[in-house]
Design goal:
InterPro entries: FAD-dep_OxRdtase, FAD/NAD-bd_sf. With 408 residues, the chain is an alpha+beta fold. The protein is built from 10 helices and 20 strands. Helix content is 28%, strand content 25%.
């Protein structure tokens, strides 16, 4: 039996304009000349999305990144977008994910209109294979009003004849979607530039400039100092050392994930397939992403391994036997920012009320990015927040029993 509730559009669209689209009035340029209102450390999916939202709220914003913008875990991810209903989400984490799901269609259209760049967003549906231990997710979907349907073997063979499914229960989620991460990041970067956000790739931040107990600026690797009124730390797994320098010690560690890209002559799979922490994502052009490893022991070593890629290929051809003949087109690895309980850290740094952090999004950066940007903007401008303010506090006790509605 299918369960379905349509999510309504959540609040306003992401790119509501504070002024004339594309305009950068002299007053804005003058304000930027004196330093930005908000300085963002980290130019990945979280940092860029937050920067755009803050700019749309009227702030002057600058973004600094140690490397290329968006080339770490943000670029490497598969771009899976689970469905969601923000008004009925059971937990703060699920609500951030649902905000992204509800607003991404409009955001994608508006990004394309503003920049001419298609981010590849589309709804292609998904298949979740759940073991008995994972069946709790079904009740969370039902409570949230997410459309799902249990498929038996004959139905699954009819819908996806190329599958040799695992021995677990299959659920079809018609609202599951995807974006192409590199395309989405290109659109964000282009739109940020159009809005007048100062983007500084290959400009690492070495430390904080603290005067009389208050952060006044940052010291760059070049030796230059940049001042700002407020700061947002969104540097993924590199955030931990910057937080430690402010005597804040949440655990944010790199977790390496490897991905394999296969190319086939025929379309072998229509829907995204998720089996525990592994997945197949069909791109619609004969390519299928196969992911992902989860390697906390790798530290900051961002490289693929023969064993990791072999395991991914074995998973792919076990689920879709015809993939044994697929061409391996590419492979890569990224470093996800992991936390002890799998939930992000979003909030003010204790003892430094003008410094916020947004990090630790683990496997879910792109799907949590819009909700995170909304929460960060609400916190910075002292507005009512979409989730409790302390839900993702940096000083919170990890909730090791937390069970989100979706695993990827």
């Amino acid at each position: 039996m299918a369960t379905q509730v349509h999510s309504r559009r959540y609040q306003r669209t992401f790119y509501d304009r504070p002024s004339v689209p594309g305009a950068r009035p002299d007053s804005y340029n003058a304000r930027m000349a004196n330093g930005p209102d908000i300085l963002v450390i980290g130019g990945g999916i979280i940092g860029l999305t937050c920067a755009i939202r803050l700019r749309e709220a009227g702030a002057t914003v600058a973004v600094y990144d140690r490397g290329d913008l968006g080339r770490e875990a943000s670029w490497a991810g598969a771009g899976i977008i689970p469905p969601g209903n923000p008004d009925r989400a059971a937990t703060p984490l699920d609500k951030l994910r649902a905000i992204g799901s509800a607003t991404l269609p409009d955001v994608s259209a508006e990004l394309a209109n503003a920049t001419g760049i298609d981010n590849g967003y589309r709804i292609n549906g998904g298949l979740e294979f759940l073991t008995p231990a994972d069946e709790y997710a079904v009740e969370l979907w039902r409570a949230e009003g997410v459309a799902f349907e249990r498929w038996d073997g004959p139905r699954l063979r009819d819908e996806e004849p190329g599958l040799s499914p695992p021995h677990s229960t299959c659920y079809h989620l018609s609202g599951m979607g995807q974006v192409r991460n590199p395309w989405h990041l290109r659109a964000l970067i282009a739109h940020a530039r159009d809005l007048g956000i100062a983007l500084s790739p290959h400009t690492g931040v070495e430390g904080w400039c603290v005067e009389n107990g208050r952060v006044r600026g940052v010291q760059l690797a070049s030796g230059n100092r940049v001042t700002a009124d407020r700061f947002l730390l969104a540097a993924g797994p590199w955030s931990e050392r910057h937080l430690n320098d402010l005597n804040c010690r949440p655990t944010v560690r790199p977790i390496r994930g490897q991905i394999l890209l296969l190319k086939t002559e025929a379309a072998l799979l229509r829907r995204t397939l998720i089996d525990d922490k592994r997945y197949l994502v069909p791109r619609g052009d004969g390519r299928i992403l196969v992911g992902s490893t989860e390697e906390p022991e790798a530290g900051f070593e961002k490289r693929t391994t023969e064993v990791g890629l072999a395991n991914l290929h074995a998973f792919a051809r076990t689920i879709v036997p015809a993939l044994a003949n697929a061409k391996v087109e590419a492979s890569w690895a990224g470093l996800r920012p992991g936390s002890p309980d799998g939930m992000p850290f979003i909030g003010r740094v204790p003892g430094h009320d003008n410094v916020l952090a947004a990090t630790g999004h683990s496997r879910a950066g792109i799907q949590l990015s819009l909700g995170t940007a909304q929460l960060v903007t609400e916190l910075i401008f002292d507005r009512p927040t979409c989730v409790p303010k302390d839900a993702f506090a940096l000083a919170r006790r990890p909730d090791l029993q937390a069970k989100p509605a979706f695993r990827s």
